[in-house]
């Protein structure tokens, strides 16, 4: 299913969520955080994404993004 999603809808929220979760499982906290933040930028009301971002930040001990800076850093 993940491979099908990658081919049929690579820019979908579901595809980004799968990618972020895979990055988290590899301990790649910053790239996972960027995936979640990108999802929130595209769909700020998507259910559960803010929760997943918060979990990623706490597991990776990274600072959460601030309201004035969606990515939490200068990029």
Low-confidence stretches: none
Number of helical stretches of at least 4 residues: 4
Overall pLDDT: 80
User: What general outline do the C-alpha atoms trace?
Assistant: globular
* Number of separate strands: 0
Note the run of SSEs as H and E: HHHH
Largest sheet: none
Kindly provide the radius of gyration, computed on alpha-carbon positions and rounded to a whole number of angstroms.
12 Å
Q: What portion of residues belong to β-strands?
A: under 5%
Distance between the termini: 33 Å
Give the helix proportion (percent range). 55-70%
Q: Helix/strand/pairing class, anyone?
A: mainly alpha
Describe this structure in words.
The model has no long low-confidence stretch (mean pLDDT 80). The protein contains 4 helices and no strands. With 75 residues, it is mainly α. It is globular and about 35 Å long. α3 runs antiparallel to α4.
Please outline the helices and strands.
Layout: H1 2-8, H2 13-25, H3 29-42, H4 49-60
Helix pairs in contact: 2-3, 3-4
Q: What is shown here, in short?
A:
By secondary structure, the protein is mainly alpha-helical. It has helices spanning 2-8, 13-25, 29-42, 49-60. The protein contains four helices and no strands.
Name its key features.
75 residues; 4 helices
């Amino acid at each position: 299913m993940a491979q099908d999603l990658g081919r049929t809808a690579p820019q979908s929220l579901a595809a980004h969520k799968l990618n972020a979760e895979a990055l988290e499982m590899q301990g790649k906290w910053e790239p996972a955080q960027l995936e979640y933040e990108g999802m929130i930028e595209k769909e700020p009301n998507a259910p559960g994404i803010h929760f997943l971002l918060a979990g990623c930040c706490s597991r990776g001990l990274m600072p959460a993004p601030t309201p004035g800076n969606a990515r939490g850093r200068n990029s």
